[in-house]
Amino acid sequence: MSGGNRMELGFDREKNRQERLAFVREYAQWVRRVPNEVWSREQADLIDAFLANAGSYALSRSRYLEMHQALAKRRRPGSVDNHGSA
Amino acid sequence: MQITSAPDGTILIDGKVVTGLDRFVASVTEIIEQYARYVIVSGYVAILFGRARGTEDIDLFIDYMDRDTFRSFAEELLARGFYFLNSDDVGEIYSMLRDGLAVRIAEEERIIPNVEMKFKKDDFDRYAMTMARAVMFDDIRLFISPIELQIPYKLYLGSDKDIEDAVYLWVLFCEMLDGDLVRSFMERLHVRGEPYGIGV
After folding, report:
1. Residue B123's Cα: distance from chain center in Å?
2. Per-residue pLDDT tens digits of chain A, which is 86 residues long
3. What number of CA atoms fall less than 13 Å from residue B150's CA on the CB side?
4. Which helix (DSSP H) or strand (DSSP E) does residue B114 occupy?
5. Partner residue opposite B85 with nearest CB, options A36, A42, A61
6. Which ranges of A1-86 does DSSP label H, i.e. alpha helix?
7. How close B67 comes to chain A (CA, Å)?
8. Less CB within 10 Å around the terminal CB: N or C of chain A?
9. Contact between A28 and B104 using a beta-carbon 8 Å cutoff
10. Predicted ipTM of the assembly
């Protein structure tokens, strides 16, 4: 932090983006190399864990739709309805 | 990844471990296809081919259904343990679809995952539907948008996640794609792949 109320963030958004893309490329190359049973077993563990956790959110359907409505408004102003659909 | 192609063009992913998400998508699309054609687009296409990320919704387009057909479809969906998140009024759900809006389908008592379903509406949706590719693994068959359209479409959507999906599909399929077709969709959608190493 510098003087007064100015704050600095040491996070480089573009560098982070490039690192993520490099990882995605590397991961895709790995998926190409290994048998389907291998990549899909790892992926299934990840996705099934994600789904198991998703079931424990205390989220009502109206709140969920409101969240999507807000997200869609941010993405494409004016193209969203009252039901959270873009 | 070992992908083979059946004589009818179906993409076969032998040995793929089926996820809960795959089972959910298959159980909804199995009902949809009794009433209309459908095509899956966007994130789930990348996930189907191994992209390591979760998703809360699966985007798909369906052919137009008239009100009576839609009512029969909705009744079967409800009888099979699904519901529409947007409303309990089937008439209202149909009106939303007619207005070009998406409706969401989930299993009873759940919100995630859900299928985000729309009537197809523009030339890109129609192309995806007409040229849809069947994908088979285990006992599941799904219809997905051509990868040649999905990569430019993901670049067009433009979020970090969408661009990562486009790059993933490109690295996976670059040698199997029709480059002219990818380039043509990129031009129509006014997107460029070079900044991300997608060179067609």
Report:
1. 16
2. 445 677 777 778 889 999 999 999 999 999 999 999 999 999 999 999 999 988 777 778 888 888 888 877 776 544 434 444 44
3. 32
4. strand B114-119
5. A61
6. 13-33, 36-54, 61-75
7. 20
8. N
9. no
10. 0.91
